[in-house]
Specification:
Keywords: Membrane, Transmembrane, Transmembrane helix
Family: Belongs to the RUS1 family.
Number of helices: 14
InterPro entries: RUS_fam (IPR006968), UVB_sens_C (IPR055412), UVB_sens_RUS_dom (IPR054549)
Shape: flat
Protein name: RUS family member 1
Subcellular location: Membrane
Number of strands: 6
């Protein structure tokens, strides 16, 4: 009973992990942990696990989608590790391991060519991101498994697979960096990255142990090898899809802003980050009616671009695209408004006669109309998205590096 222990002088807690109370009685202060001894021992074991594999301060120090994403990410990494084991065994067999007629020099050259083409792929395909890269990674491992059965084309096949696998390395690094920034709620990116490394090491260790049992079973058994590969690949892609769908990004990219704006223009309803993320395409890029280019060079018709426009950006339609020039002083809110106008122009162009829209007079009339529309709706739209939980301090919009300064009539 707390009454027998004395008066509670103070309490303290370590995040959400444990709590203590300080009792004062007869001039003596005593500290006791909340909960019984068995519960305390259980908490200490859980505490060790959390300190090794979870960021400090979890769950308060990370985003609400952290645990669900990490679970599915762990599942996809485990299945990919097992698929990689099958592919590695096939590659080693292809370069001559276990074949007395194979030479060390030939095997070395083949392996170096495989690694070299992979390095080249990492340079050339730094632009490719998304689940498409994971599909290519699985396809690359499938090629490596098949390669030993086509000895005449073995080097070509494994080099092609190396290029495909390099893409997922580039895309994975870029995606992981963006997710780390999203998950860090206390600017604790370093801690989250370190714990992600610990989780990945644990998964790879588990995959290694399972592989030690798996390899003797699949050796010289191509049917079982392919069957297990397709099983692991299906699990890998499913877990990847679930991992991506579990992420709720609160910052705008072009797709999420387009989805939210189009819903607002339809029924004046603001979508929450969770709703917009569920509508965002996973396998394919967001399809726009007319392409939008952000951060382009100055338009030729400067006087028309400045008409009815006092914003630090310019809009126009050029070569079938909606183009946006950004001024050097533009804020994040200006960037959001510029894309909102571009999205409206893109949608309008899809609904109206192309000759009218892309005629010299017609498209500038629509640009001027977009300025008037945004003058009316942008302020309440901005307040609505902020109230819905969107982060307006930064964006993930894909601006090019051109910045344009211009003189207005007033100066």
């Amino acid at each position: 009973m707390e009454g027998d222990r004395g008066v509670v002088l103070a309490t303290e807690r370590y995040g959400s992990a444990e709590s203590w109370k300080y009792f004062g009685k007869d001039g003596v202060m005593e500290r006791r942990r909340d909960g019984g001894e068995s519960e305390s021992r259980g908490k200490s074991i859980v505490g060790v696990f959390k300190s090794v594999f979870l960021p400090q301060g979890y769950p308060e120090s990370v985003s609400s989608d952290y645990l669900q994403y990490q679970f599915w990410d762990t599942m996809q990494a485990f299945s990919s590790s097992l698929s990689g084991t099958l592919a590695t065994q096939a590659s080693l067999k292809g370069v001559g391991v276990g074949n007395q007629e194979a030479t060390v020099a030939a095997a070395t050259i083949t392996w170096l060519l495989r690694d070299g083409t992979g390095m080249l792929g990492r340079i050339l395909f730094a632009w490719r991101k998304g689940l498409f890269a994971d599909v290519l990674n699985d396809f690359a491992m499938f090629l490596e498994i098949l390669a030993p059965y086509f000895p005449a084309f073995f080097t070509l096949i494994v080099c092609t697979a190396g290029i495909f696998k390099s893409i997922v390395g580039v895309a994975g690094g870029a995606t992981r960096a963006a997710l780390t920034v999203h998950q860090a709620r206390r600017d604790n990116m370093a801690d989250i990255s370190a714990k992600d490394g610990s989780q990945e090491t644990l998964v790879n260790l588990a995959g290694l142990l399972v592989s030690l049992v798996l390899i003797p079973l699949v050796t010289d058994n191509p049917i079982l090898t392919l069957s297990l590969f397709f099983l692991f690949t299906t699990l890998h892609l499913f877990a990847n899809y679930k991992a991506v769908r579990s992420v709720v990004m609160e910052t705008f990219n072009e797709a999420r802003l387009s989805i939210v704006l189009q819903q607002y223009l339809t029924d004046s309803r603001i979508l929450s980050p969770a709703e917009a993320n569920q509508r965002e395409p996973v396998f394919f890029e967001f399809r726009k009616q007319v392409p939008i280019k952000l951060g382009v060079r100055l338009p030729d018709e400067l006087s028309l671009a400045l008409k009815n426009n006092n914003m630090p950006f310019l809009l126009g339609l050029r070569n079938g695209c909606v183009c946006v020039c950004l001024g050097p002083e533009a804020s994040v809110h200006d960037e959001i408004r510029a894309l909102c106008q571009a999205v409206w122009l893109s949608a309008f162009s899809h609904l109206h006669n192309a000759y009218f829209l892309f005629s010299f007079k017609g498209h500038w009339d629509m640009v001027h109309e977009s300025h008037k529309l945004m003058d009316k709706i942008f302020s309440p739209f901005l307040k609505g998205v902020e109230a819905a939980g969107w982060d307006l301090k930064r964006t993930l919009l894909d601006w090019d590096e051109w910045r344009v300064g211009w003189k207005t009539k007033s100066n």
